[in-house]
Design a protein that fits this description.
- This protein is α+β, with helices and mostly antiparallel strands.
- It has helices spanning 6-18, 23-30, 35-47, 71-80, 96-118, 129-145, 149-159, 199-207, 216-228; strands at residues 21-22, 51-56, 64-69, 122-128, 174-179, 185-193, 211-214.
- The protein has a 4-stranded mixed sheet with strand order 4-5-6-7, with helices on both faces. A 3-stranded antiparallel sheet has the order 1-3-2, sandwiched between helices.
- Helix 6 runs antiparallel to helix 7.
- The longest helix is centred in the middle third of the chain and has 23 residues, at 96-118.
- The N and C termini lie far apart (54 Å).
């Protein structure tokens, strides 16, 4: 028998959608900057075996305190029916680099969410790049088995709300699906560019229709790349 507050269920929901989330970001976005409230929620969730918290080393910055659901936490969250049935939920830690990537996507999501809610969007669903790739590659593999992968590529890309760019189908880091005030289905594809991106990488993502964001420490280098090629 679990005893949970509404804020703890919301915390678990945010963690489950992104697999791993930085505790600092949970404080900022999920608890309005209230450290005591966050600490109380995380302590209770850990005590009941619903989340795990680890210090994950980072190659470029200081280690980060990341939080993920446990198997028990995942099962409980699914049972609460607190998220849409088609919303994927995750548990457990992946490799450090992938865990940091997932945590970065949570911050990226907040930027997209701000825009969507400002425009009156509702019924929001989060889709990570891993889920998009899994579904896309499955359909491409089926087409290849039938011997018509080349002809079907554009149709498959369109089916997944994507585009073929120079023979490839770029996949965004994050997709947010939502319902507009007119009750129309819409999507917002976001890409988190890093300092390692080159013009070709960025241009491909722009042509695919993605909105490009960057971490503060990477922004100046990426802006310089864009300016050199007159790409906005």
């Amino acid at each position: 028998m679990y005893t949970l507050r509404g804020s703890e269920i919301q915390t678990m929901t945010d963690i489950g959608k992104f697999r791993a989330v930085d505790a600092k970001d949970l404080r900022e976005f999920c608890h309005g900057g209230n450290s005591k409230h966050l600490d109380a929620d995380l302590t209770n969730l850990r005590r009941q075996g619903l989340i795990a918290r680890r210090e994950i080393p980072h190659q470029e910055t200081a280690p980060r305190q990341l939080v993920a659901l446990t198997k028990q936490g995942h099962r409980l969250l699914v049972a609460t029916n607190n998220t849409p049935k088609d919303q994927a939920l995750y548990h457990g830690f992946t490799k450090p680099r992938e865990a940091h990537h997932d945590a970065d996507l949570y911050r990226l999501y907040q930027r997209g969410l701000e825009k969507i809610t400002r425009e009156g969007g509702t019924r929001i669903r989060v889709i990570l790049d891993s889920e998009l790739k899994k579904n896309l590659y499955r359909d491409l593999a089926r087409a290849e088995q039938k011997g018509n992968s080349g002809d079907a590529k554009a149709e498959i890309a369109e089916r997944h709300g994507l585009r073929v760019v120079r023979g490839k189908i770029p996949v965004p880091d994050l997709r947010i699906e939502y319902e507009t005030p007119d009750q129309e289905h819409a999507r917002f594809d976001l890409e988190l560019a890093t300092e390692h991106y080159r013009f070709r990488n960025i241009a491909q993502k722009v042509r695919a229709g993605f909105s490009i964001y960057a971490r503060a420490q990477d922004a100046s280098n990426l802006r310089r790349v864009l300016d050199q090629h007159d790409l906005t």
